[in-house]
Design brief:
The chain is of the alpha/beta class. Helices cover about 30% and strands about 30% of the residues. The strands form 3 sheets. Strands 4-3-2-6-7-8-9-10 form an 8-stranded mixed β-sheet. A 4-stranded mixed β-sheet has the order 11-12-13-14, with helices on both faces. The protein has a two-stranded parallel sheet with strand order 1-5.
Length: about 400
């Protein structure tokens, strides 16, 4: 063999050998052979078996109202089915046995935990979820009022899927909790878990199907729910989240004279102050709001009236937070805002030596001091009622 051909032959042999290492798409599954699960619910039956409920879009019905059909009723664009098993995997296998397409969980957006399932403990559920190879830690997780399956069977009028409605509602009206957030709260000393609670409710006037509504938040001790606070009260939890979620509040100025404001910026600084026999917390709030509805008839173009409203709003926010902390922290022994975590970060030695092991027991003696600094830089598009006669 001539010496000039040897490099060429070597390259050809190397390319042929490299091609053996290419795996290709040997395990590919066509999209039309998959059933994409948008959300699933986990309920506990009376015989202690798990009931797994899934929501799958019907692709043939997504093109328009005249397409396809099927599922739980012929006019829906999704399919809801459930099965029971000693484990979720067993229940999933039963579901798969009657599905002509392979269940695919990697696109699920929401996980719904039934009320009874939550009472049995979240750690087991999270361990099960985390072991799903197609699990998404960024999926939202909510607790249902009653059975989780009822939320998946509801048909909101503004969204095609209740899973999408839940995702939007969590971001707008609840304190959004993802799977990774819940896992972090459960494995971090000094903070307890909390989850938004949703229910399938009748609309007014009553429609053919039920709507989904955020009804409050459940607070936990260890991994079990101990109390549920109403939606208005749960707004106070927003101040203690990594990212503040805006909300609206109605403030009574006088009898039957109310003003609604949108709180669009907010933050809370927690300062632990050790006392002789207890912990005291100074919480400093910073808030910015906008007047969005006025029934008082007050001239908000007057800076003095705005300062009066800022003071009243600051007192209202402080009162709401104090009542929430008193009910949840002092009475229920739950710490969803992370008071213990703030102490552990600023006074680590004190936390380890005195409070860490029995933090829940110490919570009943904790006291609070709340200072709110509120600014209302905008009073809406007008300062006075447009129908009022101009003063000359």
């Amino acid at each position: 063999m001539r010496k000039g051909y040897r490099p060429i032959i070597s390259v050809v042999v190397l390319v042929m050998l490299s091609s053996l290492l290419l795996a290709g798409c040997w395990d590919r599954v066509e999209v039309n052979d998959r059933a994409l699960v948008l959300a699933f619910a986990i309920d506990k039956e009376e015989d202690d078996r798990y009931r797994m409920t899934i929501q799958v879009p019907l692709v043939s019905s997504l093109g328009g109202p005249s397409g396809g059909g099927g599922g739980t009723s012929g006019d829906k664009s999704y399919y809801v089915d459930s099965a029971t098993g000693r484990t979720l995997r067993e229940a999933s296998s039963v579901l798969q046995a009657r599905m002509s397409r392979q269940l695919f969980f990697a696109h699920h957006r929401v996980i719904v935990i039934g009320e009874e399932t939550a009472r049995s403990g979240l750690r087991t559920i999270l361990d099960i979820i985390a072991r799903f190879p197609e699990n998404r830690l960024t999926a939202y997780i909510v607790m249902a009022q009653g059975k989780g399956a009822e939320l998946l069977e509801a048909q909101p009028q503004l969204e095609r899927f209740s899973a999408e409605a839940m995702r939007e509602l969590i971001n707008m009206h609840g304190v959004a909790i993802k799977v990774k957030d819940l896992a972090q709260m459960l494995n971090t000393p000094g903070i307890d878990a909390h989850l938004p609670v949703m229910a399938a409710v009748e609309s007014h006037p009553k429609g053919k199907t039920k709507e989904i509504q955020v009804v409050g938040s459940a607070v936990f001790v260890n991994d079990r729910p101990v109390h549920r606070i109403k939606r208005e009260q749960a707004n106070s939890l927003r101040w203690f989240q990594p990212a503040f979620q805006p909300f609206s509040i109605t403030l009574p100025i006088e009898k039957n004279k109310n003003v609604s404001l949108d709180i669009h910026h907010g933050s809370a600084d927690i300062k632990p102050i050790p006392k002789k026999d207890r912990m005291h917390y100074r919480i400093n709030l910073q808030a910015k709001g906008t007047i969005i509805e006025d029934h008082s008839g007050i001239d908000w173009g007057d800076p003095g009236n705005i300062r009066m409203l800022e003071t009243m709003l600051g007192r209202k926010l402080s009162k709401d937070i104090r009542e929430m902390l008193s009910e949840v922290v002092n009475r229920q022994g739950s710490d969803p805002v992370g008071l213990g975590l703030a102490l552990a970060r600023k006074r680590p030695n004190l936390w380890k030596e005195k409070y860490r092991d029995r933090w829940s027991e110490h919570l009943k003696d904790v006291t609070f001091e709340i200072n709110a600094r509120v600014l209302i830089p905008s009073n809406g598009q007008t300062t006075e009622n447009l129908t009022e006669e101009e003063k000359r």
